[in-house]
């Protein structure tokens, strides 16, 4: 596997939440690699330029995407799923046919992208904790992608966290867990904060209690190497208070609710693949 320092010039087409997180990882982990990025709006591109990034906006310069991919060995597509095939088709005439195209779009298959350009394609599904170097990214190669292409994608996403290689048939399923998962966690924290306010704490104290409890519990999970079930047992004194709280959550069929949430995300990924 090549070292991050050997990454070729990189273009990021669509530098929003996800493209921006990858950009942050690249700047921190491989500062010598040439990175050119694009956005739709000139205001976003100007903000990136003010931060020292080579950025152009398509609304201001219709050749911005062609400029970004010129000389690039890896092109990351960070636009919305519905735009992926059209944007790749527009880029195809200017793109080096040997350049690796990496899409992070939910639902869009490597086959759909391979029909739009002659390039090797890797499909990736990162998540937003990539912004702080703690992402999880699933990667899967298309029909033209070799072990070298996958290693290149691994190198790129290892700059922003952990990488899992898997068959493309599992990428949508991974997306329902690690891709969407940060939203599940933030929603739980929001609800936990509301429960604290209902107990009479003002908003600031409620937030502090809820957020630091989540952060502390996950830090304990990571540092101890114990199963979450065992760590939960240690909080739950027999006939104590936690037992009552956990009983209420389990009685509300929390487990089935998580499965239904993941199934709903999977169904949407399949709709996106079908162009809906
Ligand atoms: N937000 C997330 O947690 C994750 C998102 N993704 C995928 O990342 C992709 C982007 O999602 P977000 O970052 O959330 O959306 P976003 O709306 O924050 O970013 C999209 C970016 O694309 C730019 N853009 C739009 N049209 C463009 C064009 N023609 N040329 C160049 N740039 C253009 C926009 O200016 C914006 O910067 C989606 O395909 C999504 O499925 C994947 C994993 C996680
Ligand atoms: O919500 C979405 O469609 C994207 C893919 C996974 C996380 N965000």
Automatic annotation (TrEMBL):
GO terms for biological process: L-proline biosynthetic process. NADP(+) binds at residues 13-18, 39. Residues 168-272 form the Pyrroline-5-carboxylate reductase dimerisation domain. It is found in: Cytoplasm. Residues 10-107 form the Pyrroline-5-carboxylate reductase catalytic N-terminal domain. It is an enzyme of class 1 (oxidoreductase). Transmembrane segments: none annotated. InterPro entries: 6-PGluconate_DH-like_C_sf, NAD(P)-bd_dom_sf, P5C_Rdtase_cat_N, P5CR-like_CS, P5CR_dimer, Pyrroline-COOH_reductase. One of its GO terms (cellular component) is cytoplasm. Keywords: Amino-acid biosynthesis, Cytoplasm, NADP, Oxidoreductase, Proline biosynthesis. Its EC number is 1.5.1.2. NADPH binds at residue 65. One of its GO terms (molecular function) is pyrroline-5-carboxylate reductase activity. Pathway: Amino-acid biosynthesis; L-proline biosynthesis; L-proline from L-glutamate 5-semialdehyde: step 1/1. Belongs to the pyrroline-5-carboxylate reductase family. Catalyzes the reduction of 1-pyrroline-5-carboxylate (PCA) to L-proline. This is Pyrroline-5-carboxylate reductase.
């Amino acid at each position: 596997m090549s070292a991050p320092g050997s990454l070729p010039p990189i273009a990021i087409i669509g530098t929003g939440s996800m493209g921006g997180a990858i950009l942050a990882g690249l700047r921190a982990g491989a500062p010598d690699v040439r990175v050119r990025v694009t956005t739709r709006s000139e205001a976003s591109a100007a903000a990136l330029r003010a931060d020292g990034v080579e950025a152009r906006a398509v609304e201001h310069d219709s050749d911005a995407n062609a400029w970004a991919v010129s000389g690039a060995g890896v092109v990351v597509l960070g636009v919305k799923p519905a735009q992926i095939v059209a944007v790749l088709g527009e880029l195809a005439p200017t793109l080096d046919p040997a350049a690796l195209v990496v899409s992070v779009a939910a639902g869009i298959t490597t086959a759909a992208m391979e029909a739009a350009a002659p390039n090797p394609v890797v499909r990736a599904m990162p998540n937003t904790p990539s912004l702080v170097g703690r992402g999880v990214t699933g990667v899967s190669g298309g029909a033209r992608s070799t072990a070298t292409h996958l290693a290149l994608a691994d190198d790129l996403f290892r700059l922003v966290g952990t990488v899992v290689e898997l068959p493309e048939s599992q990428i949508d399923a991974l997306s329902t867990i690690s891709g969407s998962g940060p939203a599940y966690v933030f929603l739980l924290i929001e609800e936990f904060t509301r429960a604290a306010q209902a107990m009479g704490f003002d908003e600031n104290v409620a937030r502090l209690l809820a957020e630091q409890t989540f952060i502390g519990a996950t830090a304990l999970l990571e540092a101890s190497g114990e199963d979450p079930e065992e760590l939960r047992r240690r909080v739950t004194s027999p006939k104590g208070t936690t037992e009552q709280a956990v009983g209420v959550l389990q009685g509300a069929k929390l487990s089935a609710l998580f499965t239904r949430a993941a199934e709903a995300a999977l169904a949407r990924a399949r709709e996106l693949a079908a162009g809906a």
